[in-house]
Structure to design on (158 residues):
């Protein structure tokens, strides 16, 4: 298996503007997470991604970064969407559309406190799952996810 020993310089320069968002060595670990996610061909688990990183970045480093509560994933998402939309060609007809897609997955097992349960209508089967709304920017055949939000149940306190 291919294992890298140094971070590619163009990627380090490209992600350098995100350094103020992270504490400690989390910026370096985040850069490695992005690189490994881009080159890994199998199912991208944390354990699988950690095999590609240098020896001084272990699996627990990646887990600690992903569970840190101080950084905002939504701001990173917006930054990546801005970078991707700047690189992609503009639309032929000059029109960009915002597409809102709702995901509602059936799930078995222990029930999540924010999950929806019940029926969508009288003919639909009973469902149980997280209701997430994703906002995407679309032009031509290209779609870029811009934002997402968890839809809470009506009886949830928030």
């Amino acid at each position: 298996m291919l294992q890298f020993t140094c971070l590619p310089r163009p990627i380090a320069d490209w992600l350098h503007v995100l350094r103020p968002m992270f504490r400690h060595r989390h910026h370096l670990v985040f850069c490695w997470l992005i690189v490994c996610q881009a080159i890994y061909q199998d199912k991208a688990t944390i354990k699988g991604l950690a095999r590609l990183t240098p020896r001084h970045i272990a699996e627990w480093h990646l887990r600690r970064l992903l569970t840190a509560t101080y950084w905002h994933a939504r701001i990173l998402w917006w930054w990546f969407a801005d970078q991707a939309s700047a690189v992609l060609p503009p639309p032929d007809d000059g029109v960009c559309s915002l597409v809102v897609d709702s995901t509602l997955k059936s799930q078995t097992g222990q029930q999540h406190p924010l999950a929806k349960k019940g029926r969508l209508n009288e003919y639909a089967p009973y469902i149980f799952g997280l209701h997430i709304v994703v906002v995407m920017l679309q032009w031509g055949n290209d779609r870029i996810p811009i934002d997402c939000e968890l839809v809470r149940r009506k009886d949830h306190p928030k």
